[in-house]
Specification:
Mean pLDDT: 88
Radius of gyration: 15 Å
Number of strands: 7
Largest sheet: 7 strands, mixed
Low-confidence stretches: none
Strand content: 5-15%
Strand order of the largest sheet: 3-4-2-1-5-6-7
Length: about 150
């Protein structure tokens, strides 16, 4: 599953980058474009593209996915942690809080991350196989991570 979101033009740049490389994946890919208020659905070979999912549909899709590729937004990260889903985080270029969170969570071995301009799907999927972790965080560790983050800003 791939969640494309964020401000333009980076949202569209990320989507085009992904669509150009998704033919390399064996299996079904759900790409959610992050365009609330729209409702188009497009099917291309093994790729299902939806503009938006309701919260319950999004949670179900995340839980059914083997891997989620998403931006490193705070809400997305919290959803992934709550659902204990493995993910590859691609911070939105220029969004320093996403860049920081993605790097910090990668150092803590909670998620894998790569910058958008270095994203090459085939190489990333190979690297992810050995670097993914289930993001289970007990409440004490969660509170410590958040406190450290707040203290650092």
């Amino acid at each position: 599953m791939i969640l494309v979101s964020g401000p333009e033009p980076q949202r569209s740049i990320f989507e085009k980058l992904l669509l150009a490389q998704l033919h390399q994946i064996n299996g079904i890919v759900l790409l959610v474009r992050g365009l609330p208020g729209k409702g188009s659905v497009v099917e291309q070979k093994n790729i299902l593209i939806k503009d938006h999912l309701l919260a319950n549909e999004l949670n179900e899709a995340i839980q059914r996915s083997k891997l989620v590729i998403a931006r490193a937004g705070y809400t997305t990260i919290m959803d992934l942690v709550k659902l204990q889903q493995q993910a590859l985080l691609i911070p939105t270029p220029g969004q320093t809080e996403q860049e920081y969170l993605a790097q910090y969570l990668a150092e803590q071995k909670i998620f894998y991350t790569i910058e958008q301009d270095k994203f090459m799907l085939d190489k990333v999927l190979q690297a992810v196989k050995t670097n993914l972790h289930i993001p289970f965080i007990d409440m004490q560790r969660y509170k410590k991570i958040i406190a450290n983050f707040i203290a650092s800003v």
